[in-house]
Amino acid sequence: MDSATSEARTPLGASADQGFKIVVVGGFGVGKTTLVRSVSEIRPLNTEETMTQAGATVDDIRQVRGKSATTVAFDFGRISLDARKVLYLFGAPGQERFWFLWDRLFSGTLGAVVLVDTRRIDDSWYAIDRLEHHGTPFVVACNDFGGPVRAGAEVREALDLDPQVPLIDCDARSRESGKQVLITLVQHVKNRYADPSARAGLPRQEFV
Amino acid sequence: MSRPGNRPGRDDAPDRLYTLTQGRTRTGPDNPFDLVTLVVAESEPVTGMQSEHVAILKLTRSPTSVVEIAAELRLPVGITKVLLADLLAAGRVSARHPHRPAITDPDILEQVLVGLRNL
Ligand SMILES: Nc1nc2c(ncn2[C@@H]2O[C@H](COP(=O)(O)OP(=O)(O)O)[C@@H](O)[C@H]2O)c(=O)[nH]1
Ligand SMILES: [Mg+2]
Fold it and tell me: Does any domain span residue B37?
């Protein structure tokens, strides 16, 4: 194995026993890796999962030889919340093929952050549509690339965003800003599910 | 289990993966591992053990998530889960699985918020 990567590891404490996931989705170059890096206690790592194009599990690795299989890469970081809880933050592409993997990889997620570049807002429609479809709670964070500031109402309208979905500005390069995005998401999840009547719209909680 | 036709000169990466898991990549309901399941070694590696198993047992001397194991071993997540299932069945690792109804548990969410605010 690659000992160089292992030497750089920061191990978790022995009492760590509860893993949580939050997924950051968005188009290429929107700042996903930057956001993960800003808040992570480890240098972001990346890995991949293989699937068939039809979205089915690859049941036999021999299919990988054929054209039917494709690979989706994602990166992730880690935040130790306390002695037992560890939050993993995943940066994942928003393209169509990625969503076949959602149930397989990201079921049970606390929620998602849709990272938006307001100069190309249309890139985000598909991700929002998919998250609504999966019933995953999410917030929308507009990453500041120094372009003209767009009013929240304008962005909300352009994205056809439900009034209950929090919309915030962020700078993915800033740890404090990234932290606020995560707090906004978890607070939103807490508000949304605190009310037992809201549980009808729960996402599927199947584990793979 | 027989190996599929091995045509010399072709990219051997899929063959390597095939050999690692004896062709199994199925991670159906029988495979309990989640991306963020924390895995802990219950024994030291022994001689003759598959090198990936050795690497996993070394990595998991402290709790390590499935996704970190996959990244460190540079293996796809599905293959990593198969290797982990073998080690779990042999009693060589234990698994600390995530809480299922985390998003509907206000106490857990509050603890997550406290952890984030303390960052
Ligand atoms: N000005 C500015 N640049 C950013 C910001 N976030 C990311 N970038 C830059 O945008 C580029 C793409 O970011 P990256 O995180 O790799 O995007 P990803 O493809 O979504 O992972 C990089 O060069 C970043 O340094 C931001 O908030 N402001
Ligand atoms: Mg990236």
Answer: yes
CATH number at residue B106: 1.10.10
The predicted pLDDT at position A68 comes to: 59
> What is the per-residue pLDDT for A52?
57
pLDDT of A57 > 60? The answer is no
> A91: Cβ below 6 Å to ligand 1?
yes
Q: Which residue has the higher pLDDT, A159 or A103?
A: A159
B99-102, long-range: CB < 8 A, 24+ apart: B99/A18, B99/A20, B100/A108, B100/A205, B100/A207, B101/A205, B102/A20, B102/A108, B102/A110
CATH fit for domain A13-201, picks 3.40.50.300, 3.20.20.370, 3.50.30.20, 3.30.70.1450: 3.40.50.300
Interface test with B, best of A61, A86, A103, A204 (most B CBs within 10 A): A61
Q: Which stretches in chain B have pLDDT values below 70?
A: 1-30, 102
Residue nearest to atom 14 of ligand 1 (CA): A31
Nearest-CA distance from A14 to chain B in Å? 6
B25/A11 touch (CB, cutoff 8 Å), yes or no: no
* DSSP-assigned beta bridge partners for residue A114: A25, A140
